[in-house]
Design a protein that fits this description.
Elements lengths: L1 H22 L7 H15 L11 H11 L4
Helix pairs in contact: 1-2, 2-3
């Protein structure tokens, strides 16, 4: 179901950001950590449709990063 996939994506993004933060010596997850892993996590989870304006999932991740302001 869609909500199960959304929860799985959020969990994958959180875990990847936590690992990134740890590897870079951060005490907690920073917005920059989420930005660093969003592309690969999205790339693993999404496949754009043929009619999409995005060529690949990496473009989707970059679009999200550009469209959503960092808190």
């Amino acid at each position: 179901s869609g909500s199960r996939r959304a929860a799985s994506f959020k969990t994958a993004l959180l875990r990847a950001a936590q690992a990134w933060a740890f590897m870079h010596g951060h005490a907690g997850v920073l917005p920059e950590d989420v930005q660093a892993v969003l592309g690969p996590v999205v790339g693993h989870r999404l496949a754009p449709r043929d009619e999409s304006r995005f060529r690949d999932a990496g473009q989707v991740g970059r679009h999200v990063l550009e469209a959503v302001p960092v808190p």
